[in-house]
């Protein structure tokens, strides 16, 4: 090994050693570097074992001394580290007297931690990463319980998996890999990074084989990453499967431990692997020059650590990748950065005072892609577990970093001193303002201006010359004596008068002054206390003083508030001058975590720089988003979701996001044109396979249609009015394509109204007849709306206007609906109706846009369609239930309940009886649960599998629907009954294969999550005329009333 290689090896080892120390500090909360190093040494470099040592109950953490807190490396030692916000995590003091001891401790620790690395080329940290990947993939294969259902099963219909136009491609979650999707999508959408990966080709010739284990890992990984990126560019699929890349990460390391680690380790390690992979290519292309690694050029920067320790100054340049920031105690990103860049007392850095110690960090070179890792997890030593910090932390879309640059350190120090002075002055002003706003010496305090106002009101009240108790008879009974007369309440005043109530005591009844026995207060009794004796002169002087003092206090308060606002504004604009806005970084991606420290889900918001909009990448789902949605999910403080990683890019480095252009034609290259030939062929092959899937699906559907036609031609046709299918989501409530329901019997009602109008009116002009017919129809529908019919006779199904009237729709909506009914072309079958139809159509055209809000009009009619659709779901579901077809009934009843709940949220008469639907939905689940349990008890493999299919596909997805509302006690009791039914098997003897299936199934059944999972598409509904719908609904409701169900 050459000297240069030895130095590189030591530098790499120091990097891994420092990363371990950073992680130990963050997990355990212990800041003493010697304690951390000793734990790492005792654990032989095993991170998990070191955490166990440090968090054990008998672990004694020595008090940290100031001398060990401010430690740094020897000046000039240029090395890679992961920068923390505490000095002891990234600097080593070699200036103190204990230099030799510390060096020996580091050497011993490095020797232990690097032993495996020297032998195999794989560090202990990398093995820990492997354990997480293995646990992730093993969990997917075992199909065990998840807090979040992250594993997606492919839809059998390939058209559901087809990419829409140029919509971005998603990544399938292959088992707790949402973190992988979020990170990869963020990097893929950096066009420069995408180009680097797609054009990666490290081996110059076929005989160049991997030379060590690291190359055995990196080269296959980069190959799969290229394939994955190529599919994200040109695939015709809506989402692609990253299993091959994940499998390679898993196969790179072997471990039997399946404990899951913190996912932030993956991000660190992913960049390390990419750096190593590109280092191979860089060394091939160096031609005698020092190789440049594009990953280092893209993601790594440098800062200068300047400090003083007990009067000794030091400077050290260090390299950083992801920059970690503490969240707790800060309100925005700049506050986090200020705290990370300044540690300890820094006055001695630019003064002669040698009694204080501290250090500053100054960026000397910023990377084009700057990533901040937000530390939102801390270890709770009392509880012995990690916890997530949900505090709100704001961050801007454009971040100016001039104030942290080394070239600006003099002006920044001046501004920091000015801000410090302003904040000190601000604190004084806020304390003074608080004395005005919280005046008093007792526990209760009030604004001083209000106190003076109350005093003024008291002084100005009408004086009284008597004591407040003089108007009550002094012969009132002493304490403890029963009194028969009290101040009556409002309700008592309506009963017998107090003089009619007999005395319960021989003591004379107290004589109460008349005002206390009347419901109104006489005008001569003051509403508030008032001065008993005050002269006009005294009142004049006092009023003058109070008015003057109140005005003075108001002016002082206003001046203080204005001064505070000015100072806030001055601080806000401190770095807004032109010289401090020269280094802009634009927010490119936000990686979000939802959940707690030990479980959760990850997704990413990524900015589309060309479309100038935010996109949300959530595994297979890629949707348009907004800055407002990003704020809500990322800032924290709103729910359990918050950002854990921010990726900013240099706004002046356009090559990061710039599209490629054809060198000959100058045209922009898009899609497949950006791929190298080998990847273009790879994507074409995959697209051919997907197109074949589509063709096979089409052929299968065509074959089914032919079989159905053949079967229909051979089978006698049965009269079944409910068999005609319609498109789901657009249930018809009209015979013709009109807005009003003109089925046969309603059409006859319209004609009947016209006929009656002709007989009542001598003037038979079309306009007069139409107006009369509309009035008659309105009166008929109003009578229906006002009736109180039995449940089987729902007049709302007869006409939309009845529904509108019962739910107090605006009169203009009702009038236009009736006009459309009489203006429909179906009334053109004879001359008299045709003339009325034409008049109605003219009236409709004369309605101005400002007279009827068409958006509101459409909304009412859409709601009525939803009501009829809900009715059909309910009706069909109840019909299946009565036939004991519980599996068919369940889906209809689920959609009936969900749609009905949404309708009822807008008004009491907008839906059906919620308790009725809830009862039959619950009964359906209980019946299916019993059926599935009976199949399981049979012991037959086929029947056991069928029973578990019923549970997994029908019952388990429905449980959150019953648990989401804690007030529905019957639903919650039903869930407990179903769970108890299956838990009762735990104590019974059964075959090993049954025990295994039960063990696999029970966690899903017992999952307490109330997250509602997606169901299949809504079942298709038949097309009913109004007459058919009313008749069938009445029939099913009558049958229910004749056969009452338990619990109704």
TrEMBL record:
<dbReference type="Pfam" id="PF21909">
    <property type="entry name" value="USP_UIM_N"/>
</dbReference>
<dbReference type="GO" id="GO:0016579">
    <property type="term" value="P:protein deubiquitination"/>
</dbReference>
<keyword id="KW-0833">Ubl conjugation pathway</keyword>
<dbReference type="InterPro" id="IPR050164">
    <property type="entry name" value="Peptidase_C19"/>
</dbReference>
<keyword id="KW-0788">Thiol protease</keyword>
<comment type="function">
    <text>The muscle-specific isoform (USP25m) may have a role in the regulation of muscular differentiation and function.</text>
</comment>
<feature type="domain" description="USP">
    <location>
        <begin position="169"/>
        <end position="651"/>
    </location>
</feature>
<protein>
    <recommendedName>
        <fullName>Ubiquitin carboxyl-terminal hydrolase 25</fullName>
        <ecNumber>3.4.19.12</ecNumber>
    </recommendedName>
</protein>
<keyword id="KW-0832">Ubl conjugation</keyword>
<keyword id="KW-0677">Repeat</keyword>
<dbReference type="GO" id="GO:0006508">
    <property type="term" value="P:proteolysis"/>
</dbReference>
<feature type="region of interest" description="Disordered">
    <location>
        <begin position="712"/>
        <end position="741"/>
    </location>
</feature>
<dbReference type="Pfam" id="PF00443">
    <property type="entry name" value="UCH"/>
</dbReference>
<keyword id="KW-0539">Nucleus</keyword>
<feature type="coiled-coil region">
    <location>
        <begin position="680"/>
        <end position="707"/>
    </location>
</feature>
<dbReference type="GO" id="GO:0004843">
    <property type="term" value="F:cysteine-type deubiquitinase activity"/>
</dbReference>
<dbReference type="InterPro" id="IPR038765">
    <property type="entry name" value="Papain-like_cys_pep_sf"/>
</dbReference>
<feature type="compositionally biased region" description="Polar residues">
    <location>
        <begin position="478"/>
        <end position="508"/>
    </location>
</feature>
<keyword id="KW-0175">Coiled coil</keyword>
<dbReference type="InterPro" id="IPR054109">
    <property type="entry name" value="UBA_8"/>
</dbReference>
<dbReference type="InterPro" id="IPR018200">
    <property type="entry name" value="USP_CS"/>
</dbReference>
<keyword id="KW-0597">Phosphoprotein</keyword>
<dbReference type="InterPro" id="IPR009060">
    <property type="entry name" value="UBA-like_sf"/>
</dbReference>
<dbReference type="GO" id="GO:0032183">
    <property type="term" value="F:SUMO binding"/>
</dbReference>
<feature type="region of interest" description="Disordered">
    <location>
        <begin position="474"/>
        <end position="508"/>
    </location>
</feature>
<dbReference type="GO" id="GO:0005829">
    <property type="term" value="C:cytosol"/>
</dbReference>
<dbReference type="InterPro" id="IPR054108">
    <property type="entry name" value="USP25/28_UIM"/>
</dbReference>
<keyword id="KW-1017">Isopeptide bond</keyword>
<keyword id="KW-0963">Cytoplasm</keyword>
<comment type="subunit">
    <text>Homotetramer, inhibited form. Homodimer, active form. Interacts with ACTA1 (via its C-terminus); the interaction occurs for all isoforms but is strongest for isoform USP25m in muscle differentiating cells. Interacts (isoform USP25m only) with MYBPC1; the interaction prevents proteasomal degradation of MYBPC1. Interacts (isoform USP25m only) with FLNC (via filament repeats 17-18, 20-21 and 24). Interacts with GAPDH. Interacts with SUMO3; the interaction sumoylates efficiently USP25. Interacts with SUMO2; the interaction sumoylates efficiently USP25.</text>
</comment>
<keyword id="KW-0645">Protease</keyword>
<dbReference type="GO" id="GO:0005634">
    <property type="term" value="C:nucleus"/>
</dbReference>
<dbReference type="InterPro" id="IPR028889">
    <property type="entry name" value="USP"/>
</dbReference>
<comment type="similarity">
    <text>Belongs to the peptidase C19 family.</text>
</comment>
<dbReference type="Pfam" id="PF22566">
    <property type="entry name" value="UBA_8"/>
</dbReference>
<dbReference type="InterPro" id="IPR003903">
    <property type="entry name" value="UIM_dom"/>
</dbReference>
<keyword id="KW-0378">Hydrolase</keyword>
<dbReference type="InterPro" id="IPR001394">
    <property type="entry name" value="Peptidase_C19_UCH"/>
</dbReference>
């Amino acid at each position: 090994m050459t000297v240069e290689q030895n130095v590189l090896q030591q530098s790499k080892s120091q990097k891994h050693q420092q990363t371990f120390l950073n992680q130990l500090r963050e997990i355990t909360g212990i800041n003493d570097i010697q304690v951390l190093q000793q734990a790492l040494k005792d654990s032989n470099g095993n991170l998990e074992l070191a955490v166990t040592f440090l968090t054990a109950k008998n672990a004694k953490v020595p008090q940290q001394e100031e001398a060990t807190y401010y430690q740094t490396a020897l000046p000039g030692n240029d090395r890679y580290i992961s920068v923390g916000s505490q000095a002891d995590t990234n600097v080593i003091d070699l200036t103190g007297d204990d230099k030799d001891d510390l060096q020996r401790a580091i050497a011993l620790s490095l020797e232990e931690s690097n032993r495996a690395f020297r032998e195999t080329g794989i560090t202990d940290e990398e093995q820990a990463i492997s354990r997480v990947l293995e646990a992730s993939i093993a969990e997917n294969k075992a199909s065990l319980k998840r807090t979040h259902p992250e594993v997606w099963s492919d839809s059998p219909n390939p058209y559901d998996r087809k990419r829409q136009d140029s919509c971005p491609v998603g990544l399938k979650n292959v088992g707790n890999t949402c973190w992988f999707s979020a990170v990869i999508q963020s990097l893929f959408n950096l066009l420069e990074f995408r180009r680097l990966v797609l054009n990666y080709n490290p081996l110059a010739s076929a005989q160049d084989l991997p030379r060590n284990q690291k190359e055995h890992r990196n080269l296959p990984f980069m190959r799969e990453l290229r394939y994955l990126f190529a599919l994200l560019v040109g695939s015709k699929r809506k989402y692609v499967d990253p299993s091959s890349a994940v499998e390679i990460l898993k196969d790179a390391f072997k471990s039997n431990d399946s404990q899951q680690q913190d996912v932030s380790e993956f991000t660190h390690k992913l960049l390390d692997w990419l750096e190593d992979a590109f280092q191979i290519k860089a060394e091939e292309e160096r031609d005698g020059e020092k190789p440049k690694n594009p990953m280092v050029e893209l993601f790594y920067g440098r800062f200068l650590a300047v400090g003083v320790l007990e009067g000794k100054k030091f400077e050290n340049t260090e390299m950083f990748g992801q920059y970690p920031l503490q969240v707790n105690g800060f309100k925005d990103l700049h506050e986090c950065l200020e705290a990370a860049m300044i540690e300890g007392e820094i006055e001695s850095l630019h003064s002669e005072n040698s009694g204080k110690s501290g250090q500053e960090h100054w960026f000397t070179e910023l990377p084009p892609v700057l990533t901040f890792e937000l530390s939102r997890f801390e270890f709770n030593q009392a509880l012995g577990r990690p916890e997530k910090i949900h505090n709100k932390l704001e961050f801007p879309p454009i971040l100016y970093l001039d104030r942290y640059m080394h070239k600006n350190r003099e002006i920044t120090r001046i501004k920091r001193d000015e801000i410090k002075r302003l904040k000190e002055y601000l604190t004084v002003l806020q304390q003074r303002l608080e004395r005005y706003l919280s005046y008093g010496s007792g526990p209760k305090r009030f604004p001083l201006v209000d106190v003076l106002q109350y005093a003024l009101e008291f002084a100005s009240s009408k004086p009284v010359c008597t004591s407040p108790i003089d108007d009550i008879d002094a012969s009132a009974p002493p304490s403890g004596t029963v009194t028969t007369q009290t101040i009556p309440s409002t309700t008592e005043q309506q009963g017998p008068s107090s003089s009619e109530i007999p005395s319960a005591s021989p003591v004379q009844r107290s004589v109460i002054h008349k005002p206390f026995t009347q419901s109104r207060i006489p005008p001569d009794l003051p509403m508030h206390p008032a001065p008993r004796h005050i002269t006009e002169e005294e009142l004049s002087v006092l009023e003058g003083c109070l008015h003057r003092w109140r005005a003075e206090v108001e002016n002082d308060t206003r001046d203080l508030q204005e001064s505070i606002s000015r100072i806030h504004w001055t601080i806000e604009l401190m770095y807004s001058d032109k010289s401090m806005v020269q280094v802009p970084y634009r927010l490119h991606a936000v990686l979000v975590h939802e959940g707690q420290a030990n479980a959760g889900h990850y997704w990413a918001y990524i900015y589309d720089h060309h479309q100038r909009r935010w996109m949300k990448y959530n595994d297979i789902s890629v949707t348009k988003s907004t800055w407002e949605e990003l704020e809500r999910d990322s800032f924290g403080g709103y729910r359990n979701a918050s950002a854990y990683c921010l990726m900013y890019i240099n706004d002046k480095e356009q090559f990061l996001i710039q599209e490629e252009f054809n060198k000959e034609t100058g045209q922009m290259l898009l899609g497949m044109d950006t791929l190298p030939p080998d990847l273009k062929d790879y994507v074409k092959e995959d697209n051919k396979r997907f197109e074949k899937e589509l063709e096979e699906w089409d052929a299968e559907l065509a074959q089914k249609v032919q079989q159905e036609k053949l079967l229909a031609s051979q089978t006698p046709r049965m009269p079944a009015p409910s068999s005609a299918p319609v498109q789901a989501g657009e249930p018809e409530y009209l015979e013709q394509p009109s807005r009003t329901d003109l089925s046969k019997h309603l059409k006859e009602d319209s004609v009947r109204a016209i006929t009656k109008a002709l007989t009542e009116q001598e003037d038979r002009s079309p306009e007069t007849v139409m107006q009369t017919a509309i009035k008659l129809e309105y009166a008929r529908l109003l009578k229906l709306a006002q009736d109180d019919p039995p449940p089987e006779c729902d007049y709302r199904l007869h006409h939309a206007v009845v529904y509108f009237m019962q739910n107090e729709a605006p009169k203009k909506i009702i009038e236009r609906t009736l006009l459309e009914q009489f203006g429909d072309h179906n009334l053109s079958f004879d001359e008299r109706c045709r003339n009325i139809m034409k008049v109605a159509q003219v009236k409709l055209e004369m309605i101005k846009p400002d007279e009827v809000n068409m958006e509101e009009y459409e909304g009412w009619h859409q709601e009525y369609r939803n009501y009829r659709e809900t009715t059909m779901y309910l009706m069909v579901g109840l019909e299946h239930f009565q036939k004991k077809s519980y599996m068919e009934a369940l889906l209809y009843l689920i959609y009936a309940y969900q749609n009905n709940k949404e309708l009822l949220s807008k008004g009491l008469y907008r839906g059906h009886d919620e308790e009725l639907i809830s009862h039959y939905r619950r009964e359906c689940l209980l019946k299916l649960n019993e059926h599935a349990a009976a199949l399981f008890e049979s012991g037959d493999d086929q029947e056991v599998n069928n029973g578990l299919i019923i549970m997994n596909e029908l019952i388990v997805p429905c449980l959150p629907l019953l648990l989401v509302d804690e007030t529905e006690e019957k639903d919650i009791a039903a869930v407990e009954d179903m769970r108890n039914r299956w838990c009762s098997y735990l104590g019974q003897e059964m075959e090993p294969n049954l025990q295994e299936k039960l063990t696999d199934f029970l966690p899903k059944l017992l999952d307490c999550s109330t997250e509602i999972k997606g169901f299949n598409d809504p079942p298709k509904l038949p097309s009913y005329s109004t007459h058919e719908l009313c008749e069938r609904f009445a029939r099913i409701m009558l049958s229910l009333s004749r056969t009452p169900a338990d619990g109704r």
